[in-house]
Amino acid sequence: MQALGERSRPEMAMATPMHAFALAAVISVVALAASTAAASGGWDVADATFYGDMSGKATMGGDCGYGDLFTQGYGLANTAVSGVLFNNYETCGACYEVRCFNDTRGCRQGSSIHVTVTSLCPPDPKLPGGGLCQPPRKHFDMSEAMYTRIATTPYAGSIPIQFRRVPCAKAGGIKFQIKGNPWWILVLVYNVGGSGDVASVSVRGSSGSGAWRPMEREWGQNWQITKTPELMGQALSFQVTTGDGKCNVSPNSGGEEGGDETEKL
């Protein structure tokens, strides 16, 4: 059931690039600690609504490209954010503490939630002024399960909130879902602890010069590199730099934090 006053929002459809010989694999890296050095700050103000129902099915997929949020560890603790917060995919994976405030009837007093950014809340041209997510408005459009933990009723509509960036506590380390063929590799990076967001990704094979090759963000947390026939048959390692500048590399790179299980194409 939608909150009253909430805009009409279509379910997000996850884009699926069509490439021959695509394969999917999930690999893990040693855990990134949820460090207090991760981006944290003071409280800011926004508004919040929810979309979908208590099952959370409508929140699956989304503009960050995670897909099934349950199998990938995010579950119902997810939110879409307006463009000013989404920042052209750069906030994907970031974690926020959110609490309702300044509304004695709509707020569940003393409660707060932690949510991960998994999608964009777009403006709605059919609504006056573009709706709740029209820039420069700051808005959280979350799962109903999270909304009802800070609101007294699902009928409270758009409620005033305070929010702040907090470290992401993720178990099991960074994970990768890989698709590819001899000319193209696409990697979904997820389950990132600490700052949660990803600033850059590089890849290298287990043979050859050993140089890291930078990947580019295709969309969300999907990173790609093209013209890669020389990487076929090699074990791949990834270097992930998070938004706070911390670098996580694979064991054979001689970097700071070892520990990935490499994957062959």
From TrEMBL:
Residues 1-33 form the signal peptide. Residues 242-265 are annotated as: Disordered. Residues 183-252 form the Expansin-like CBD domain. Pfam families: DPBB_1, Expansin_C. It is a peripheral membrane protein. The keyword Membrane applies. It is found in: Secreted, Cell wall; Membrane. It comes from the Eukaryota. Keywords: Cell wall, Cell wall biogenesis/degradation, Membrane, Secreted, Signal. GO terms for biological process: plant-type cell wall organization. One of its GO terms (cellular component) is extracellular region. SUPFAM superfamilies: Barwin-like endoglucanases, PHL pollen allergen. Residues 61-173 form the Expansin-like EG45 domain. The keyword Nuclease does not apply. Belongs to the expansin family. Expansin A subfamily. Causes loosening and extension of plant cell walls by disrupting non-covalent bonding between cellulose microfibrils and matrix glucans. No enzymatic activity has been found. This is Expansin. It comes from Zingiber officinale. The lineage of its organism: Eukaryota, Viridiplantae, Streptophyta, Embryophyta, Tracheophyta.
